[in-house]
Prior knowledge:
Elements: H1 2-13, H2 15-31, H3 35-54, H4 57-66, E1 81-85, H5 91-97, H6 107-118, E2 123-127, H7 140-147, E3 158-161, H8 167-178, E4 186-191, H9 195-204, E5 209-214, H10 223-226, H11 231-254
Helix pairs in contact: 2-3, 3-11, 4-11, 8-9, 9-11
Amino acid sequence: xxxxxxxxxxxxxxxxNFLLLSAAVGTLLIALRRxxxxxxxxxxxxxxxxxxxxxxxxxxxxxxLESRFPPWHDDGRPVDGVIVLGGSIRxxxxxxxxxxSLNGSADRLIAMADLARRYPSAKxxxxxxxxxxxxxxxxxxxxxxxxxxxxGLASGRILYERxxxxxxxxxxxxxxxxxPAPNERWLLVTSAWHMPRSIGLFRKAGWTVEAxxxxxxxAPGFEDSGTAPELSExxxxxxxxxxxxxxLIAARVAGYSDDVLPSP
Length: 264
């Protein structure tokens, strides 16, 4: 129920969807000769879209998440295992064209391949099922297994968890599959903006993991050279970061995490 409710509510209340829907309703009201009511919806909606897009309102929210966990540095101690979260594979195009189509979180898979080579005795676990409400259910794990050789990884090098639909299930199902010992050292690989929520959920599920963040979207000190000028880019990142903060709050309220914003 938590999974279904989160998907439906986000479809309606993601900032860009909600603001565009409000503007559309306002336009309809004007067409129905309810001009004042329509303008009350249209003007704030369009103003907020412009503020988010052109004033880079997404930057501060993204930085609040991405600065929480620093880059991981090798201290020479052995690593027992690496957990790589799904979310980097475009399931539909990958299945339709029988190739691996990746999105902006592809850094997770690059890190997986790198860590598998650097730590040949460590377990490498990829956790990712099918996270949509509808459509043909093909798991990310299934797709990655078919194309693991493209990353230079031998058959059998990766362990796959295929049933999870969200980050909480990543944590719970992978723990149930592996039963890690308390003294084992595990790295958790996911996007920097997604790391705080992931750490909180994994800790609550019984894992002791070290954060291995990848794929930063912010560039402190280099904003002028690294910031995309397109309105759509900033709206998309704003949606992502607002969703992540909502997920942090929801996880704490539901008892799936012990902290609103977990720290190292």
